Amino acid sequence: MARKNAFYAQSGGVTAVINASACGVIETAREHRKQIGKVYAGRNGIIGALREDLIDTSKESKAAIRGLLTTPAGAFGSCRHKLKSLEENRAEYERLIEVFRAHDIGYFFYNGGGDSADTCLKVSQLSESMGYPIQAIHVPKTIDNDLPLTDNCPGFGSVAKYIAISTREAALDVASMCETSTKVFILEVMGRHAGWIAAAAGLAVEQEGDAPHIILFPEVAFNREKFLARVKRTVKKYGFCVIVASEGTQYKDGTFLTDSGVVDAFGHQQLGGLAPSLAEMVKSELGYKYHWAVADYLQRSARHIASQTDLDQAYAVGRAAVEFAVAGKNAVMPAIVRGKGKRYSWSIGEAPLSEVANREKKMPRGYITRDGFGITEAGREYLAPLVSGEAYPEYRNGLPRYTRLKLAGVPRKLKTRFAV
Amino acid sequence: MARKNAFYAQSGGVTAVINASACGVIETAREHRKQIGKVYAGRNGIIGALREDLIDTSKESKAAIRGLLTTPAGAFGSCRHKLKSLEENRAEYERLIEVFRAHDIGYFFYNGGGDSADTCLKVSQLSESMGYPIQAIHVPKTIDNDLPLTDNCPGFGSVAKYIAISTREAALDVASMCETSTKVFILEVMGRHAGWIAAAAGLAVEQEGDAPHIILFPEVAFNREKFLARVKRTVKKYGFCVIVASEGTQYKDGTFLTDSGVVDAFGHQQLGGLAPSLAEMVKSELGYKYHWAVADYLQRSARHIASQTDLDQAYAVGRAAVEFAVAGKNAVMPAIVRGKGKRYSWSIGEAPLSEVANREKKMPRGYITRDGFGITEAGREYLAPLVSGEAYPEYRNGLPRYTRLKLAGVPRKLKTRFAV
């Protein structure tokens, strides 16, 4: 097998551990110098390839690459850009091939979620459709935990841990204040179509009465009367009520409780402002004093309290992707496989990309309690191991020390420019 | 000196380390059994005294009390209840004396901020004004860092650390996404009248271009045009802009940028919703895609990443309060005194309560840059040591293990009830 360079890109919303996958890819590629030359990262994801804006990771020191393990967000830049079908936008594919050929790229590692898996699948088909030999391996990543064929998605465990911890902590605050002040606290969390992140807040419950008292899932149609009645009952019983609401909470007809009207490149609506809406509802109907928080990017970048399990898995899928590539595979994704035993264990399996792309894994209804406001024991058993272990970063002067890469550009070889 | 019981109460908004002060008070009182009998905690602060609803801390195990060191929020419950003057509400003072006498209470430890220092001062004067012998010691606590005569306030260092870390982390997220998506990120933080917490975000800056690019302080009149121009310039220069906004950000005439209309027991307005307002301003005027977060209670309960310096100081003021009491002092507050040396050091001093109550320490203008959007080197020097060190709690199953107290009530001795 001739030695080829590799292309690596981060795609879509970033996570606390996506750089750990990058670390896994780069470190493992460096161990296979016979097959893999250099790893070029796309500056800002796939558009870096389209623009021929590549980062030469071989210019980064071993320590800097290792530092990716403890650095949140996308060190090479990410993007929200979905390749259209070959029929719709042949120019983009031709450009990719042009760039790949110019830089002798034979491996394509794409680190993203469901939409990105679709892009990766399309790239994997370039060999056949356009006669350019390339092996495309998808490296799973999404805080939404909605990729199929993998037990869970790297990035989810850390946001789950952050939300569970924050819920427990804020609940202690509300409990302290509720006698004369705040009685209702609402934490809005990410999760557009699936309530995985909101569900993770349920891990904060250890015994009867513990917060969160109400979880709102996108999977359960929001019923205003039922919700308000539960808030009232909870405040009467415990003195306060903690609500964790998924941003995708929606009415029976599918309309979101709040809708900012902004649509992203994938056609998804940008949500936000659910917490203040719910707070107003509680205030006007029940009169309780409230506080609300919207964690937003804080939740998915919280590397300071990342899950060790999540970190290990993020690294492992990066490593496995390269191992798959050198084994000659194409159009696959390393998947996390949960062991059968009572004690949690996991290993890396292999999933065909054609079965991953554009398919969303919903949360099983059996993970949500019958009343729709909490998680079941089955849900807890699934979630608990994913938040296990604390992967603390190194600190300097009281703040986490995150790696800074050189991000040196690869000299351009093409004369043509491509507008993205 | 006859042995007397002690009363301890938590007051006002809680913090990540107020329980460490409780731990300091209780553990130190247990070392002085000759002078101090039992420590009774007010259930939900001072109203626990008014209602004769006392918690017997002697029923708590040594381990449970030690667990307070790592448990955020107010384990005994707090309240927002300010005693009026003796002239305005003599009944409340008479009731306090009745309860103190019934339970043989001779020491009053009040753990709170500026308003609470005023309450503590009033109680300290009961000996003279109403002929009941009591020693009242104030134990400083406030995330607002606005108490005078102490270099800083326990509770502030931890929220400062949380905000600085969260800003750094979220900024990496925005930097990853800005090429095709979010360009402006706004984090709303607490701080009604003083910008101490917002200022702490400035610690995230290590080199030119680092976030936060704009800090909004209550001390600096908000100028819409200047703000928007700075956002635009920052996005043009760095590709993205991170803004940390104090909830108390206000126009020149003193009106807050947003005002929920709700007023708390101390007459303060309940603020909130600044971040979405600023985001809308940015979107409508500059067209940038935004994200925003409101940390709210998450910031002040974030014990999982508390500052070790803050924790040590919170414990120390609790310990010192008891030592002051057994030394016969009254109407004083342990204060944190910063050492003169180049290397940060601190010790505990003594501040007269009459000079603490109802006085707010403003942030020196010299800590804010001339353009009003950042912190100076002097500000950084003041803030940096306060966030130093990571005081991690113990974890169990991936979540912090926080102490649960028995909170056993002290049998009532009075027949009269008192409505609060």
Describe this entry's structure for a reader.
The structure is a homodimer of 420-residue chains. The first copy, chain A, is of the alpha/beta class. Helix content of chain A is 33%, strand content 17%. The first copy, chain A, is built from 13 helices and 15 strands. Chain A has helices at residues 18-30, 46-50, 62-67, 90-102, 114-124, 126-130, 156-177, 196-201, 224-238, 274-286, 297-301, 308-326, 377-383, and strands at 4-10, 36-42, 54-56, 105-112, 135-140, 184-189, 214-216, 241-246, 262-263, 269-270, 290-294, 332-338, 346-352, 395-396, 399-400. In chain A, helix 1 (18-30) packs parallel to helix 12. Chain A starts with a strand and ends in a 20-residue tail after the last strand. Chains A, B: Belongs to the phosphofructokinase type A (PFKA) family. PPi-dependent PFK group II subfamily. Clade 'B2' sub-subfamily.
